[in-house]
Amino acid sequence: MKKLLLLISFLPLTTVTNVNGQPSLLSVKQQNEEFAIFKGGLQEGHSGLYYFITETVFRKKCDSIQNTFENNSSIENYYLKLRYLITTLNHGHTRISLPNNGNVNYRMAVLDTTKLYLPYEFLIVNKQLIIKEDCSKEQLFPRYSVVKSINNLSAKKLIERMIKYIPADGINQTFKYYSLYNYFYFNYLFNLFYPEKKGIAIQLENDKTDYYIELLVPKAIDNIYTSKNKKSISQYDKQLAYKLGLPNKTAYLKIGSFYKGFIENFGQKYEQFLDSTFTDIKSNGIQNVILDLRNNEGGGDGYDNILLSYLNSAPAKSKGIIKVPGSEFKFSQYTIDLSDDVKGFIANPKEFLRDDSSNYIKDVYVEMMSPENKNVPKDVFTGNLVVLINGGSFSATNGVVSELYKNREKSQRKIYFVGEENGGDIFCNTICAGQGYKIKLPYSGIEVDMPFLCFGELNKDYSKKRLPDYQVFETPSDLKANKDSVLNFAIIQCKIK
């Protein structure tokens, strides 16, 4: 218990201002009132609250955190305590955010436009902190330089410290690292840990020099990135790609997203793309497909099941069961931005629940929210699959990885997973996602967004063996040479099968 208290109270007390420029400090009374709303909101709105933590342990953690409340606490300090607690629930779709002064773009959305941050786009590979793009005024570092320390604080130690504030599903860890670099949480948490810093000293691996760097606001960081790359940090590439010509009758297929908007923004049509691709795979006698699901964070529109229908001999089924938190909503007055579906449930739970004694949704609504894909394509690929995954293979993509893993277990089909563990947890057999239950705390303005729906039955009998089958990390030298270490390994893997 003492360790927990130390962990969540290490930050210095600082005075901050709110959007209107007024002092923003919380009294103990305000913190306690908000904490009651916070706990109550989780208990009535989070469907998987006690999946990975018992109610007893949850209460003890809440008591321990509440005992650290002090008068005139900054909102940031208070927020970090709540964020730590959220992370211990082990659900990647649970989110908590501070009120801020707007954002520059969706990848940097967590950053407050008025505050100063580390001016780098980072990459974290095999626990190494790598500068993917130098967005500083000084422009001292080439791409893929490895950071040894910041202000004499080890980069690895900083990452370990920050991981405790990043939620992920089950016992998964890779999604934490992905979130730290891909959505600027490393920059964000560094600012929260050291809010008074205006500049820092950076040391690189194999370099004894101290480089002094000015911290910048998000807009300046994005502007420098844009001037160097002729595009914004948040601009993404085509999400669908297919090519032949690889050795051993192998084709490469990239599905970078299941979000319709991301795909169609480039004029690509998902179902037409898959149909023509798998027709071409069949006509060319392809024996191996390398399926690239790296950085595919999921999405909707049933795109996950549509892909599976081209890869399995049987059509993808619905998620089977959907569980909700309950039927009483004492803190609903603090909810914001709820979907019409969740509002409808709150207004009349009996319409949606199977019976008065369970929290399971009626089958008719399960089918509506998680439809079975009954269409079997004319060209289904049942050959060898090498699936590329990483910490960004999250949410609906976790479901695809899970189904392919199950297919391999049942059929003994040659399906291999290469890279690092996907961003979800396929062995817990459930995912809490979809519709959200979002509350806003009245004094601090902190927003908590939690998954209202849980799909599937929880499996607590965890497998000791985790994916991938072949763990392959990119290296700074390969990144500098524009080599894809993971894809190259997969191509070699296809040659020997």
Question: Which tags fit this structure?
Answer:
alpha+beta, about 500 residues, six-stranded antiparallel sheet, disordered N terminus, six-stranded mixed sheet
Give the helix/strand class.
alpha+beta
**Percent helix:** 25-40%
- As a percent range, the share of strand residues is 15-25%
- Number of helices in the DSSP assignment: 17
Terminal-residue CA separation: 52 Å
Query: What is the oligomeric state here?
Result: single chain
Low-pLDDT regions = 1-17, 19-23
Mean pLDDT: 90
Radius of gyration: 24 Å
Concise account of the structure shown:
With 497 residues, this protein is an alpha+beta fold. The protein has 17 helices and 18 strands.
Verbal overview:
The protein has helices at 2-7, 28-45, 55-66, 75-88, 155-163, 174-182, 185-193, 218-229, 260-264, 270-283, 303-311, 340-347, 349-352, 363-369, 396-411, 476-480, 485-495, and strands at residues 25-26, 73-74, 95-97, 120-125, 128-134, 145-150, 153-154, 199-204, 211-214, 240-246, 250-255, 288-292, 322-323, 384-389, 415-419, 431-440, 447-455, 470-471. With 497 residues, the chain is α+β, with helices and mostly antiparallel strands. The strands form four sheets. Strands 4, 5, 6, 7, 8 and 9 form a six-stranded antiparallel beta sheet that branches. A six-stranded mixed beta sheet has the order 10-11-12-14-15-18, sandwiched between helices. Strands 3, 13, 16 and 17 form a four-stranded antiparallel beta sheet that branches. It is globular.
